[in-house]
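explain this:
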Amino acid sequence: MVKLTGLKKIKTAVFISGTGSNLNNLIKFSKIKNSPISIDLIFSNTLKAKGLKFSNQFNIKKYVSNFKSTKISEAKILNLLNKDNIKFICLAGFMKILSKSFIKKFSGKIVNIHPSLLPKYKGLDTHTKAIQNKDSVAGCTVHFVTAKLDSGKIILQKQVKISKNDTPTSLAKKVLSQEHKLYPSAIKKIFN
């Protein structure tokens, strides 16, 4: 567990692979007075990640490494995290699996948001699976990251009703709007 020291915000890195809507949301959250975190680094495994634009918009350092060699990429990232004194990592649509040794170095200090009610539907295509299985609810989960995919201790979850007209796309939109509320709440819970 990471504890808040005095009034200083915890230096945080956000790892993304896509549009960065959760990143944008976390940046806005980090700017409010009682937020326990500051976003000091944005990392992506692809230059195509639209979310990288937020680094310019909010003047936040960014770093991109393609993960062709996980070992080399992770070594560079760890070096950067240490140099910038980053103490906490939020995964927000990060589509690479971090190695056991990387996770161990940041044990209890990496969280992820996942678009299902874990332990249901780990991995990809969560909304399709929920609809195919005729579930009445879907949702999202913020959890600690461990070496096992989507299996770490659950911090918070939020349910979303699945209507009979929902498609994976419409359900994804509903879940995403809840993710934007859930992620900041989960972070507050961790640090309080």
User: Anything to note?
Assistant: The chain has a mean pLDDT of 95.
